[in-house]
Amino acid sequence: MIPGITAQRFRDGWFYTGDRCVFAEDGALFHLGRIDDLIIFDGINIYPSAIEGVL
Q1: What is the pLDDT of residues 3-25, one digit of tens each?
Q2: How far apart are CA 39 and CA 52, in angstroms?
Q3: How far, in Å, are 13, 19, 49, 53 from residue 46 at the CA level?
Q4: Is residue 25 a part of any domain in this protein?
Q5: d(Cα 40, Cα 42) in Å, to the nearest integer?
Q6: With bands split at pLDDT 50, 70 and 90, how would you rate the model's confidence at 29?
Q7: How far apart are CA 2 and CA 21, in angstroms?
Q8: Count of structural domains within the chain
């Protein structure tokens, strides 16, 4: 983890991952997709659409 960057992702006690989710009335959490189409992991840009294309 990179402390400064990690701290930027916390807001109001929540960690913002870049994913879009909703809670159902029964409390279940549903993943709707990504807010952006880029994941940065260990300094490497990863595009989920490229991974999905391989799968």
Answers
A1: 777 788 888 988 888 889 999 99
A2: 13
A3: 27, 14, 9, 13
A4: yes
A5: 7
A6: very high
A7: 25
A8: 1
